[in-house]
Design a protein that fits this description.
Order of helices and strands: EEHHEEEEHEHEEEEEEHEEH
CATH class of the largest domain: Alpha Beta
CATH superfamily of the largest domain: Pseudouridine synthase
Radius of gyration: 21 Å
Number of domains: 2
Strand content: 15-25%
Structural class: alpha+beta
CATH topology of the largest domain: Pseudouridine synthase
Helix content: 10-25%
Number of helices: 6
Number of strands: 15
Oligomer: single chain
Shape: globular
Distance between the termini: 48 Å
CATH architecture of the largest domain: 2-Layer Sandwich
C-alpha cells in the first residue's frame, strides 16, 4: 500500500487510536488511463493549455472550467489585474479562445481574515510526502467549516498539522466525504499538486472504491448510469433527475445477508451523495442513511459507507499510488451481527 517514494510510513497517527486492521476485501482493479504530467511551473503560478473543446468560449469561462478550484469571479479579478497571460500576452476576459492556448496564472493568496483557524484535532495519516497526504477520515468528522460547523473540521485539523496549507486553496482538499462517511481522502500540500489532482479527478482517472451496505437482497452487480441533481422539492437533498449532471456508479456484490447486501462501489464520477442516491434509486438505500432510507429495519448510527480504496498518479513522480483502509469497528460489528443472525423466514 502506498507510493513507494519515501513517505513517512504506512500510518502515522497523533492522539488517535486506529481501529485494528480487518481482512481486506478484494476490490476491482484500476481500469482508467493514467493522467499525463503537468508542465513544471513555480509554486505561485499555474501553467496550463486550454482544451480544444474550449474553442469559441469566452476566455474567463474557459479558464473557470479549466480551474474549478477557483470561482469565476476570482479568476475574472485576476484577469483584470493582469495576473493571467495567454501565449505571453495579457488577455481580455471577454475574448474568444481558439483552444490550445498556453495560459499562465499568477495566484493571489487568499486574505487571512475569515480563514478557518488551526485546531489540534487528531488525524489518521495513511501517507504523507512533500506533495500530498492521504487521510483516513473517521465518521462524524465534517470536512469543511460551514453553517453549524464553524470549528472542529478536517480543514481546521489540516491547518494545525501543516500550517503552510493556509496558502493552498481549501487547505489542499480536492474532494470530500460526507460527515458520516468514513475512509480515505487525498489532500494536496502544494498548489501544483492540487491542480494536478483536480485534473485527474476531472479526467476520471482517480479510482475510488467504497464498501457499502445496502438494504435488501441484491443478487448481482451492475452499473447505475443516472444523472444527479437537486431534489425538485427537498432542496437540501439530491436525486436522480433528468436535468442533473452525468453520474455513473459501478457496484459488485461482496456478500449477501438476506436483509442487506455488502457491495463494493466504484465511482466513475463524483457527484454529491452519488452512491447514496444511486443505491436508493434501485430501491436498496444504504443501511443507516437518515436522508435516503425511509423504512429500514436495520439500525445503524450512520450511513454504512466507507471509502476503502484510493488509487491516483503521484503529482511529482507520476507513479501509480494505491491506498487501502480497513472497515472501521462499527461497520465490522454490523457485518458480524448480520452474519450471526439467521435470515427471517418469509411467510
Amino acid at each position: 500500500m502506498g507510493c513507494g517514494i519515501g513517505s513517512t510510513g504506512s500510518v502515522r497517527i497523533a492522539n488517535y487510536n486506529r481501529p485494528a486492521a480487518s481482512p481486506e476485501v478484494p476490490l476491482s482493479p484500476r481500469t482508467t488511463p493514467i493522467a499525463a504530467p503537468l508542465p513544471a511551473a513555480p509554486e505561485d503560478t499555474i501553467a496550463l493549455t486550454l482544451s480544444p473543446d474550449a474553442a469559441g468560449a469566452r476566455f474567463d469561462a474557459a479558464l473557470a472550467k479549466a480551474l474549478p478550484l477557483y470561482s469565476r469571479s476570482r479568476l475574472r479579478a485576476w484577469i483584470d489585474a493582469g495576473k493571467v497571460m495567454v501565449d505571453g500576452q495579457v488577455p481580455l476576459a471577454t475574448q474568444k479562445v481558439r483552444g490550445g492556448e498556453r495560459v499562465v496564472v499568477a495566484i493571489v493568496p487568499d486574505a487571512v481574515h475569515g480563514a478557518p483557524a488551526p485546531e489540534a484535532i487528531a488525524l489518521a495519516i495513511v501517507h504523507e510526502d512533500d506533495a500530498l497526504m492521504v487521510i483516513d477520515k473517521p465518521a462524524g468528522l465534517v470536512v469543511h467549516p460551514g453553517a453549524g460547523n464553524r470549528a472542529g473540521t478536517l480543514q481546521n485539523a489540516l491547518l494545525h498539522h501543516a500550517p503552510a496549507l493556509a496558502g493552498v486553496p481549501r487547505s489542499g482538499i480536492v474532494h470530500r466525504l460526507d460527515k458520516d462517511t468514513s475512509g480515505l481522502m487525498v489532500v494536496a500540500k502544494t498548489l501544483t499538486a492540487q491542480t494536478d489532482l483536480v485534473r485527474q479527478l476531472q479526467a476520471h482517472t482517480v479510482m475510488r472504491e467504497y464498501m457499502a451496505l445496502a438494504a435488501g437482497d441484491i443478487d448481482r452487480g451492475g452499473t447505475v448510469d443516472a444523472p444527479i441533481g437537486r431534489h425538485p422539492t427537498r432542496r437540501t437533498t439530491m436525486a436522480v433527475v433528468a436535468g442533473g449532471k452525468p453520474a455513473r456508479t459501478h457496484y459488485r456484490v461482496i456478500r449477501r445477508f438476506g436483509t442487506a447486501t455488502l457491495l463494493a462501489c466504484r465511482l466513475e464520477t463524483g457527484r454529491t451523495h452519488q452512491i447514496r442516491v444511486h443505491l436508493a434509486s434501485l430501491g436498496h438505500p444504504l443501511v443507516g442513511d437518515p436522508t435516503y432510507s425511509r423504512r429500514n429495519p436495520l439500525r445503524f448510527g450512520r450511513q454504512a459507507l466507507h471509502a476503502a480504496r484510493l488509487e491516483l498518479v503521484h503529482p511529482l513522480t507520476r507513479r501509480l499510488c494505491a491506498f487501502t483502509s480497513p472497515l472501521p469497528r462499527d461497520f465490522e460489528a454490523l457485518l458480524e451481527s448480520l452474519a450471526t443472525t439467521p435470515p427471517a423466514r418469509k411467510p
